[in-house]
From TrEMBL:
Catalyses which reaction(s): ATP + protein L-histidine = ADP + protein N-phospho-L-histidine
Keyword set includes Transferase: yes
Record-level GO BP terms: cellular response to phosphate starvation
Keyword entries, A-Z: Kinase, Membrane, Phosphoprotein, Transferase, Two-component regulatory system
GO MF, one annotated term: phosphoprotein phosphatase activity
Pfam families recorded: HATPase_c, HisKA, PAS_9
PANTHER family: PHOSPHATE REGULON SENSOR PROTEIN PHOR
Domain PAS: start-end pairs: 73-109
Matching SMART domains: HATPase_c, HisKA, PAS
Protein name (database record): histidine kinase
Protein species of origin: Kosmotoga arenicorallina S304
GO cellular component, one term: plasma membrane
């Protein structure tokens, strides 16, 4: 019995000893952890457990906030990149695409290009040259490139090498300059047209004046003929300069409009009186259907200019038609809350591909014919500017070879019957 008791006591002592060793080991680990936590939190190792716990909890909360802030910044930067108008790529050291923004998707028409080579995605041999030059020189590269998709587009391409932690990447930025290219082409065409339009009458005036100086002035008929040509060419140049000044003022907003209540009946009658002699001379019949008492808020002189430009064009382009009736209608009427100035002709019409550009400065479907008729190519541009200024709109219907209808729609002020 005594032996049995000794055995049990020995077992208990052994168990207590092993528990002691385990507690000692745990205590050692606790001391080490407490020491590490004290280092992280900046507290004294002798601080109470509750203080260490609070400090540790604050540290964890701060870390969570930092992670949240970092995540927010990453998302913010991604949002910024996705809303850039420029196309933005990140390329790895093997020339493969790691990241693209939304603008890239618009250019390529797909987002399935991650992992592909930039030179395979953008079909332009200059891209490959730029990339190889950047790799070789480790310097940023800059060039204009052309990409062909649904239509031709022009871009400025920037390639910038970036190295971080021994890893090489490249940033590629494409800025679309297609609109700038088109505007530059329009500017060059505009300058060329103005130069030509001014040179032609000046050359005629100079030539006939020089002939007169060397000619026998006693021949009154010849002198009269030459002076008549000089007068017509001078008038043509004056019209061009006046139209140019009008376009510039209307575009810049410097044109003054004396806004009053204008009765369109008076505008129509005034224009018909001016255009009558020209229409008779060219063999064009001008008819009208003008309702009385239609008022708009506008400038009388500008509305006359708008209407006269439309009727003048209609008469001239109807006169050159070789076959069929030569007729022009001027209609003024009110419908719903709008007043309409409508000019319809049976002239040569406007080809469908030209209708999109018909209101551009100096654009003419047939430049040779327009110059022969004394047109400046600015009349319809002026019509559109005036209509826009009066919160109106110009509509066009035309069939090539059959005639054209221009319809100006202006907010109605009142109708007096």
């Amino acid at each position: 019995m005594l032996l049995y008791a000794i055995t049990i006591m020995a077992a208990l002592l052994a168990l207590l000893f092993f528990r002691f060793l385990a507690c000692r080991k745990a205590l050692t680990r606790f001391v080490k952890i407490k020491h590490r936590i004290a280092q992280l939190t900046g507290l004294d190792e002798r601080a109470e457990i509750i203080s260490i716990y609070d400090a540790l909890r604050k540290l964890i909360n701060d870390k969570d906030k930092n992670i949240e802030m970092l995540t927010w910044k990453v998302k913010y930067m991604q949002n910024v990149l996705d809303n850039m108008t420029e196309a933005f790529f990140i390329i790895d050291e093997n020339g493969k695409i790691e990241y693209i923004n939304n603008a890239v998707k618009k250019i390529t028409g797909t987002s399935d290009i991650i992992g592909k080579k930039l030179t395979d995605v953008l079909n332009n041999f200059f891209i490959n040259d730029l990339y190889e030059e950047m790799i070789e020189t480790k310097q940023p590269q800059h060039s204009e490139i052309t990409l062909f998709g649904a239509y031709r587009e022009y871009f400025v391409c920037e390639m910038i090498p970036v190295s971080h932690a021994g890893v090489n990447h490249a940033l590629v930025i494409l800025r679309n300059i297609t609109n700038e290219k088109q505007l530059e082409a329009i500017r060059r065409e505009f300058v060329s047209d103005v130069s030509h339009e001014l040179r032609t009458p000046l050359t005629s005036i100079h030539g006939y004046a020089e002939t007169l100086l060397d000619h026998d002035l006693s021949d009154k008929e010849t002198v009269r003929h030459f002076l008549n040509i000089i007068e017509k060419e001078s008038a043509r140049m004056t019209r061009l300069i006046n139209d140019l000044l009008d376009v510039e003022k209307l575009e810049s907003g410097d044109a003054k409009f004396a806004i009053t209540d204008v009765e369109l009946t008076e505008v129509g009658r005034y224009v018909l009186k001016i255009i009558g002699p020209l229409a008779d001379e060219l063999g064009v019949k001008v008819m009208d259907d003008i309702e009385e008492g239609i008022f708009v808020e506008g400038d009388f002189d500008r509305l006359v200019q708008l209407t006269l430009n439309l009727v003048d064009n209609a008469v001239k382009y109807t006169a050159v038609k070789e076959h069929g009736p030569k007729e022009v209608w001027l209609r003024i009427y009110a419908l719903a809350n709008f007043a309409f100035i409508e000019v319809e002709d049976t002239g040569v019409g406007i080809p469908e591909e030209a209708q999109k550009r018909i209101f551009e400065r100096f654009f003419r479907v047939d430049k040779a014919r327009s110059r022969k008729m004394g047109g400046t190519g600015l009349g319809l541009a002026i019509v559109k500017f005036i209509a826009d200024k009066l919160n109106g709109k110009v509509e066009l219907e035309s069939e090539y070879g059959s005639g054209t209808t221009f319809r100006v729609k202006i907010p109605l002020k009142k109708v007096i019957k």
